[in-house]
Write a structure and sequence with these properties.
Rossmann fold; six-stranded mixed sheet; binds adenosine-5'-triphosphate; binds magnesium ion; His_kinase_dom; phosphoprotein; CheY-like_superfamily; EC 2.7.13.3
Length: 431
């Protein structure tokens, strides 16, 4: 442990200056700073202002005696723990000794003082004082370290949220690229079909003009021949069917993009609207969708949701919390993976339950899952922050999260959130 910066302090209290001088000489070189007081009143004003390792207190003094000084010190929160050694000239009977201990003395010394006894007793208290001050310094250092760790932890949690959003952006880019690909290819086909139709339309126009202008029959025939040739080449029936398909495919692609954008919007809106009202079903669907956009895996999903339940919450954070839980479940499942998500109302709470039939967890793992950086995944596969972020978010919403698991059988996460508002009709549906 590091050495305290200042020397320990001893207060010597005696109404006779010679006694003080003798005690000072005896303690010379003990490593402590010596303060003196010649009355009880003076001693009290010093003890209130100074951090002392020990008070050597004469019992018999005119005015306030040693017992009185000790009792006042004992009654004061600030001074009650300062050790006192009574110094007395009289023969100490057991009644006096008891009175002294009752008023807060830790020891007695008889006059004339034996230097070896005085120094060895004082040394014990100086050692204690040194240790106590070292502990105080350590305590302060630990408090600061604790504060720094907490600060670093919340900064990490924040960066994990940002990282999740980054991860999400990558997933979203992939999701958008797919429909964008076929919408672009469909647009190219439509462009080429349009050119074919345009050419045919121009032929019909030329035919109309030839008839109106009463051009020779041969000219009209030649245009009619071009028209029938083009029609043969274009395969109209196929074109019309294909255009119909192209439109419906393009429409569904654009709808997918629209859905992606709606989901993403919730994230950007959330920073603005801390406490919005959101349907819990929509919240879960969104989280599920976010998971699916990040992980390509086949699994069965079973849902059982209460209808029309609304929460007042930071919607993006709740979605992120649920997304982390569902993502873990999807990562845990293997072949024939099933994930069950259900909601239930209990008193004034909504209970959201996410169950999987994945690898499950041993008790030692389960104990630590909400701790930041705890992960059983390989380096680069998991940062161990997902559940700690979920935990923080749910606690911030005055909710609770619990997990149970059986190795080889699966896990269940139960999130409890206080309900903001429920409508009258709460009906369970399954899909
Ligand atoms: N449904 C689950 N089934 C089995 N193990 C789980 C499940 N959920 C969590 N765990 C365990 O809890 C650990 C901590 O989960 P957490 O989500 O905090 O971190 P991670 O998934 O390892 O990494 P990150 O989420 O930061 O990418 C996981 O590594 C895993 O061992
Ligand atoms: Mg995780």
């Amino acid at each position: 442990m590091s050495e305290p910066k200042e020397n320990s302090k001893i207060l010597i209290v005696d109404d006779i200056q010679t006694n003080i001088f003798v005690a000072q000489c005896m303690l010379d070189g003990c490593g402590a700073e010596m303060l003196t007081a010649s009355s009880g009143e003076e001693a009290l004003s010093i003890v209130k202002e100074t951090e002392l390792a020990l008070v050597l207190l004469d019992v018999h003094m005119p005015g306030m005696d040693g017992y009185e000084v000790a009792q006042i010190m004992l009654a004061n929160e600030q001074t009650k723990n300062i050790p006192i050694i009574f110094v007395t000239a009289c023969n100490v009977d057991s009644e006096h000794i008891f009175k002294g201990y009752e008023s807060g003395a830790v020891d007695y010394l008889l006059k004339p003082i034996d230097q070896r006894i005085l120094r060895s007793k004082v040394n014990i208290f100086l050692r204690l004082d040194k240790q106590q001050r070292q502990l105080k310094t350590k305590h302060k250092e630990l408090q600061k370290a604790y504060y720094d760790i907490n600060k670093a932890q919340s900064e990490l949690a924040r960066s994990k949220k940002l990282a999740s959003i980054g991860q999400l952006a990558a997933g979203v880019a992939h999701e958008i690229n797919n429909p964008l690909g076929f919408v672009t290819s469909n647009t190219n086909s439509l462009q080429s079909y349009f050119n074919d139709f345009k050419m045919l339309f121009q032929l019909y126009r030329a035919l109309e003009q030839a008839i109106v202008e009463q051009k020779p029959e041969a000219a009209v025939h030649s245009i009619l021949k071009d028209i029938s040739k083009s029609k043969q080449q274009l395969d109209f029936d196929f074109l019309l069917d294909d255009i119909k398909d192209i439109f419906s495919e393009t429409k569904s692609g654009l709808e997918r993009v629209k859905k992606i954008i709606t989901n993403l919007k919730v994230f950007s809106d959330a920073e603005v609207e801390e406490n919005s009202s959101i349907g819990i079903e929509q919240c879960i669907e969104s989280s599920l969708w976010l998971v699916k956009s990040q992980i390509q895996k086949e699994f069965k999903i079973e849902k059982s949701f209460c209808k029309d339940v609304e929460l007042i919450c930071n919607a993006s954070h709740i979605k992120l919390a649920l997304m982390n839980i569902i993502l873990n479940a999807v990562q845990a499942i293997q072949e024939n993976g099933v994930i069950r998500i259900s909601t239930e109302i209990r008193d004034d709470d909504i209970i959201i339950c996410v169950q999987d039939n994945g690898v499950g967890m041993e008790q030692e793992v389960l104990r630590d899952i909400f701790n930041p950086f705890f992960t059983t995944k390989a380096i680069g596969e998991g940062s161990g922050l997902g559940l700690s972020v979920s935990f923080d978010i749910i606690k911030q919403h005055n909710g609770d999260i619990n997990a149970t698991s059986r190795p080889g059988e699966g896990s269940e996460f139960v999130v409890t959130l206080p309900l903001a508002r429920t409508t009258d009709k709460v009906a369970a549906t399954s899909s």
